[in-house]
Amino acid sequence: MKSQRLLSMMLLLQTRHRMTAPELAEELQVSVRTVLRDVATLTDADVPVFAERGRYGGVVLLPGSQLDVSRLSPAEIDALQLLGLDPGQARQLGVEAPTRTAHRKLASRHPVPGHSLLPLSGLVVIDNMPWFSPGTPGADVADLAKDLQTGRRLRIHYRSSAEKDASWRTVDPYGLLAKAGRWYLVADINTTPRLYSLERLLRWETLPTARSLRRGESLASVSRQLSTSVGSRNGITVTATLAADRLDLARRILGSRLTSSNPLDPDRAEITIVYDRAEAARQLLQFGTHLRVTGPPEVQAVMREVATATAALYER
Predict the structure, then answer these.
(1) Span 236-313 CATH architecture
(2) What pLDDT band is residue 43 in, cutting at 50, 70 and 90?
(3) Cα separation, 37 vs 25, whole angstroms
(4) Whole-angstrom Cα distance, residue 211 to residue 175?
(5) Whether 176 contacts 184, CB under 8 Å
(6) Angle, vertex CA 40, rays to CA 38 and CA 46, nearest 5
(7) How many other CB atoms sit within 10 Å of the CB of residue 32?
(8) pLDDT single digits (tens) 142-153
(9) Which of 1.10.10.60, 2.30.40.10, 1.25.40.10, 1.10.10.10 is the CATH number of 2-61?
(10) Whole-prediction pTM value?
């Protein structure tokens, strides 16, 4: 609906203050021409929105103009209660109390029980913690978040997974990403986006200079790019046979690494798993004799080596 689109445009401009017509078109899923027509409609209705021309122009909502967003529909209230952090993540960020208060305020605005369908927020619980690896935040999430709010560059002492020792590096931070029970710092280093696991972030310090982010990019857009690149990156594909009654467990443990599963007979299935490197296939040892790696040879060698070394520990 056009009225809903106009409201969405004003909310976007109230949040970001200035956006280009293509940015608004992407957010609203319409054409640039439609965006310009909507801007004209708002202007004709005396809404203080205007378009600036030029290289650094855009659509602007005049400073001080605020939209009353208190009139939320029941469906919008329900959706808001389903979004955001789970209680554990709110606690790590140090915002557990205001999160509870906000939820209570939203809950108080629900329709009277019995007069409508049950709200989804009462039927769905969001818990981002993984099943088998609780994940420790490492660096203090709340302290880091406070430093990120200053909008300044960071100098971080960080150990990547391929390094034995940590090293210092200067980054331009976008913010924090909570994914699969773990926290990541999303930042540019020399204009290249990177994910830094807080589990390996040893120390950090804020620098006096303001962060310099790439034009048109945001925490959400960069996080999506990085998540997509991590999920689709090339690696080594492992094939294995697995007991059929362990297939559900494999899906839970391996997650997106498990790329296919095909039944061989009632008792076995053939699966393929993608890892960054052969050594990472050690994870499959937890399936014991229920799983047998059939290729490639370098992964079979890793499994033999680890299994032999483990057996040696129990020799008398």
Answers:
(1) 2-Layer Sandwich (3.30)
(2) confident
(3) 11
(4) 11
(5) yes
(6) 110
(7) 14
(8) 899 999 999 999
(9) 1.10.10.10
(10) 0.60
